[in-house]
Amino acid sequence: GKYYCSTDRISYYLPPQIQPKFTYHELVLHIASDEDANLSRLQWHEQSVEMIDGLYQIENLFGHKFLIYRKQDSRIYLGDDEPLEQRIFRLEHVRYREYRLRHHQSNKILNIYQHSLNNEAPLVTDSQTDQTFTFQYVNDSNKDYYIWPAHQPPTHRRKVLDIHNDPYGHARQNGAQVQSYDFHGGLNQRFRLHAINQNITQLANKVFQVNLCDT
Question: Which top-rank group of organisms is this from (predicted)?
Answer without folding.
Answer: Eukaryota
